[in-house]
UniProtKB/TrEMBL annotation:
InterPro entries on file: LRR_dom_sf
Superkingdom of source: Eukaryota
Taxonomic lineage: Eukaryota, Fungi, Dikarya, Basidiomycota, Agaricomycotina
Protein name: F-box domain-containing protein
Length: 550
């Protein structure tokens, strides 16, 4: 029986695909479309939505010079009454990014005196006094604040003055401007105003943040149902780690580090074994990014091997990496997790002494993790042996269930890495693979590899930073055969320290290859013949996966 669509369903679909500017116009056309348009426009709000909301409510206009306090209050009451029609739609508020710090006069064609986010939020605080809603954002689900605004947390506090029963995610990225006193006050009130809080993110660092450690620990101690915690050098310490171990629902732990020698988790606290004994061992997702290897090893060796499924480890050393402590010991800990399916492992620095000879041999211990489906390996270490076809083929044989595979390395002082034979091994030995990311790839010295049989039709996303191709005809023919679809990304960000642009387009290699692939497409259309099934240009393009950037 066919479903009868209601008018409300149609209006919702219209709003779902409309642009923000169109939603703003639709909201003023009729009462029937007002609510779906406003909900779609303001559900995920940032500075732009707040600024637009003040304009809609009339608060962006400057009052007349002769306006007295009574007139001013009446104007605010009228603004608040209109504001109340919109504010229940705001469920996610993200005040991050650098674009809002200074808003020029005449922004978007309007004469506005809003030049800073603190000015805007102070206007909201005035409206909140006359609003029918307490708190001002009654349906808020998530909140995020940028570190550049940290010195004005007092303007954010009115948003958390009353209970927010739906708030589940709270994020403040700490930075030097953060006002510690206001931050302590805000964190102290969170357990009361947001009793259903499930996710807390407090990354970043602060100088002399030891006095804040107790505030962070008390906050975690009052949230026993916390499911996810993200912390940095300022917000993570031994007391926080100990209180996290009492969160029975904790499934995700993300610790971001910085460039410093002594971690806030002191040697004494680690030596007494006061953490990771109750619930931390049952994590499903663990990310230790640029943390001291000693802390990384300490946590890894105390995790329950039957629970962890996703792991991210960024390992680096200021004075060089030790093969035993910074490579082999973390890898040995990873191998303990038979259920792990996603691994992001990055090494940055320099190996001490002659350890560089044994790096790839140490990495083969990971082959015991047979269930890996998503693998990202980043090796920014000077090595005597560069990545080659043998290394990649051994990985494909060890991880046959791969769906996503990325291998990046520092190739500045090394010859080009694997050849197209590695693509054959990846597609042949890993039948479920749909994403490949490599630092570079080159044509083989002798001839292109022959495919034993055409691989099954599937979508393949191929991301390569550098191509070394001599015969574009052969490359085009090979790439057509290797997969039913080919997508090449032009920009890739592989870590916070590395931002690279694809370089293959600079010498015209890819334009030539796509031209050759079009020729192959034309031949395929001819082969279909007048009696064969009609094959459209678009259909063949989808089959070949031709990507044209021109």
């Amino acid at each position: 029986m066919c479903r009868i669509f209601q008018i409300s369903d149609v209006l919702h679909l219209i709003c779902l695909f409309a642009r923000p500017s169109e939603l703003a116009v639709l909201a003023g056309t009729s009462r029937a479309i007002f609510h779906p348009a406003v909900q779609e426009l303001y559900e995920y709000s940032d500075y732009h939505q707040l600024l637009h909301l003040l304009r809609v409510c009339g608060e962006y206009k400057k009052g007349p010079p002769t306006e007295d306090e009574a007139e001013r209050r009446q104007r605010v009451i009228r603004t608040a009454a209109r504001f109340d029609l919109y504010v229940p739609s705001i469920k996610h508020l993200n005040l991050s990014g650098a674009w809002w710090i200074v808003i020029p006069e005449g922004h978007n064609g309007f004469d506005t005196d809003v030049e800073h986010l603190s000015n805007l939020l102070s206007k909201l605080a005035v409206i909140a006094r006359e609003s029918a809603f307490t708190p001002l954002l009654p349906n808020l689900r998530s909140f995020k604040l940028d570190p550049a605004y940290g010195r004005h947390i007092e303007h954010v506090k009115p948003l958390f003055a009353s209970e927010l029963p739906y708030l589940e995610s709270f994020s403040i990225q700490l930075g030097n401007p953060t006002h510690k006193g206001d931050l302590t006050s805000l964190l102290g009130s969170l357990p009361l105003t947001a009793p259903n809080l499930r996710q807390i993110s407090l990354p970043g660092g602060l100088p002399n943040s030891q006095d804040l450690t107790r505030s962070f620990a008390r906050l975690i101690g009052k949230l026993p149902y916390l499911e996810s915690f993200e912390g940095g050098p300022a917000s993570f310490g031994a007391d926080v780690l100990q209180n996290l171990d009492h969160c029975s629902h904790l499934g995700t732990l993300i610790l971001r580090g910085g460039n410093y020698e002594d971690d806030v988790v002191s040697s004494a606290s680690l030596g007494h074994g006061l953490s990771c004994e109750r619930h931390l061992c049952a994590l499903h997702r663990l990310e230790l990014r640029a943390r001291p290897t000693r802390l990384t090893n300490y946590i890894l060796e105390r995790m329950d091997p039957e629970e962890l499924q996703t792991m991210t480890l960024w390992l680096s050393g200021q004075d060089g990496l030790s093969l035993a402590e910074d490579v082999q010991r973390p890898i040995a800990a990873v191998v303990r997790f038979p259920q792990i399916e996603a691994l992001d492992l990055r090494f940055h620095g320099e190996l001490k002494g002659g350890d560089a000879d044994d790096f790839w041999g140490s990495l083969t211990a990971l082959f015991a993790c047979r269930r890996l489906r998503n693998v990202f390996l980043f090796v920014s270490i000077p090595l005597r042996r560069s990545v080659d076809d043998e290394i990649i083929e051994s990985m494909t044989l060890a991880w046959p269930e791969l769906k996503e595979f990325a291998l990046m390395w520092n190739d500045e002082d090394s010859p080009p890495g694997p050849t197209f034979r590695s693509l054959v091994a990846l597609t042949k030995n890993c039948p479920q693979l749909d994403t490949i990311q490599l630092q570079s790839i080159r044509a083989p010295a002798d001839q292109f590899p022959e495919l034993e049989a055409p691989p099954r039709a599937r979508l393949l996303h191929l991301r390569v930073r550098k191509y070394y191709i001599d015969d574009n005809d052969q490359a085009a023919d090979f790439l057509v055969k290797i997969s039913s679809s080919l997508d090449v990304s032009r920009i890739s960000v592989f870590s916070r320290a590395y931002f690279w642009l694809d370089e293959f387009d600079e010498d015209g290699v890819w334009n030539d290859v796509t031209t050759k692939m079009r020729d192959i497409r034309a031949r395929l259309r001819l082969l279909s013949g007048p009696s064969g099934p009609e094959v459209s240009k678009e259909a063949v393009d989808r089959y070949l996966g031709i990507v044209d950037f021109r």
